[in-house]
């Protein structure tokens, strides 16, 4: 049941801190991050030549976040593909290739087909899923359950953030087991991850910021989402949520690519959401805010607490607590989930059952 919430999406957004706490519980042992589910020996891990992450929709976005983290921490090359593309490609696989499928429902037909294709090619398949006993769980060699609890709303929220945490656990685990990160560093990053639920709770208390910012979209027919690095993906996920439940056209772009085309869209009042946390590319993203501002855009910014400069340039601020770069996508997206929901409410849309969509897509 909805337990007093107006819709399942509201409930599931609110459940994110507990979901992540459940996932992280008992995951740090004396030897570092524990992921017995992976069922791979140190020799097998050391021999991995490439990882394919294959998924659809929101789960595909988790893969985009995971890629640079696995590459940076575990130094293993990673390719991320939407399953519906991957299945028709001639991919380079060896028996040292690891395939990670990410699927909340565990029933997405394209994703399951990818797992079969990889198995047939000799790769090992790890499933990250939310549903116990799902087809993905049964077909994979190893399963990491994200334990977010049933997700009813068609728009995925708590599964997205829990899957990102799961992906970061996998990245830490691989890095520790192949010797690229020492035990102390792994433990330090794990303890940082444990701060995420509290940071999300803080963002949940700021839903009034999203409710206010929703006004910028109600009368418009289109919106642009910009971000850099990991948060180019946060922008993509924010745009997907908005399209899905408010039926507003939304497009995401890596912020620096904007001037190569989409900036032509901007006219006075055009809503632009910019993910601009305090990270190593903040000053570059700030210049993108200036560019759209100069053309009259209404700017909604996700920024870090205390960032005066960004605040001055923004029409609406969605503030997040200061966090290491690899945690920001998990925390920042919560604002974009709430923003999409408020826009959809203002436009009179069905929050939990958007038109034309089903919770799991079981046809290829
Ligand atoms: C978006 C959404 C979809 C799913 C996609 C994959 O909010 O829910 O994009 O993420 O259909 O579903 P799973 O993860 O069940 O394979």
SSE inventory with pairings:
Elements: H1 8-14, H2 16-24, E1 28-29, E2 32-33, H3 42-46, E3 50-55, H4 57-74, E4 78-82, H5 83-86, E5 97-103, H6 109-120, E6 124-129, H7 135-139, E7 142-145, H8 158-177, H9 183-193, H10 196-204, H11 207-213, H12 215-218, E8 222-227, H13 230-246, E9 249-254, E10 271-276, H14 282-294, E11 298-304, H15 308-313, E12 316-320, H16 328-346
Parallel strand pairs: 3-4, 3-5, 5-6, 6-7, 8-9, 8-10, 10-11, 11-12
Antiparallel strand pairs: 1-2
Helix pairs in contact: 2-8, 2-10, 4-8, 4-13, 8-9, 8-16, 10-16, 11-16, 13-16
Bound molecules: fructose -6-phosphate (F6R).
Fructose -6-phosphate binds next to helix 4 and helix 13.
Quick take:
Its EC number is 2.6.1.16. The chain is an alpha/beta fold and 364 residues long.
Descriptive key words:
globular, EC 2.6.1.16, alpha/beta, 5-stranded parallel β-sheet, 12 strands, binds fructose -6-phosphate, 16 helices, cytoplasm
